[in-house]
User: Fold this.
Amino acid sequence: MKKTIIGLLFLCLCLPSIQAQEDTIRTTRQVMRSTLYGIGHTNLLDTYLSPMEYTGPELRILRENIRNTKYMDSKVYRQSLFQANVSLTENKAGTGSEFAFLANWNLAYHYSFYKSGKWQLQAGPNLDLNGGMIYNMRNSNNPVNAKAYANLGASGMAIYHFKIKEHPFMLRYQLNVPLLGVMFSPEYGQPYYEMSIAKDFGKNIRFTSLHNQPSVRQFITLDFPIRNTTLRVGYVCDIQQAKVNHLKSHMWSHSFLIGFVKHFQIINPYQ
Assistant:
């Protein structure tokens, strides 16, 4: 009798541990992280600083984190994407230079609505935050224009898995389009000190949409193994343009990148 009671007590103590292990298995998150570095070409236009286009090389870094969530049977994926690029450009006549910097953070939730064989298609909303500046080295008056804008948009992704001599490859294409947002912009000829003195930013914060900010970001990446490492090569087409406060601006970038990918699991028994 005593042995039976001890056995029952031991079983009761073990059951929570077994259940926790089962919950842990159910809440395992698949995570993919990558860091890419690249070089490319930029075409700049900012009529607040100059009516001329400036072109030149750029350097870019891109960091990405993707994991599946617990929503809709883990068919929703959370993507956090950060990228920053710097460029040094010249005008066509060679009489002036501009230095530009732009940082972008993008948060997207993709729903996997199609998965069959080698193909997987995802789509969903995204939040897009941007900040930076353009400095015209020739201007003595108004030499700098700040860049700050935020958007809500749509994001889509197509993934294709295939093998070459039993080695797994993954080809991916992603498209991000801003739909609604707000943007900071000075007025034509308005100096920054005037804004700081007047403290009236009503004319400098503008709502944006497809009619005055027709922009797009496109990504193409290819993952392939080299021994125990997953290598990634990619191409980014970053088209940022706007027409607000009677000012035109664009930053057209084309970059080729290379880096590494890490895959691992996060186990959280409390979710």
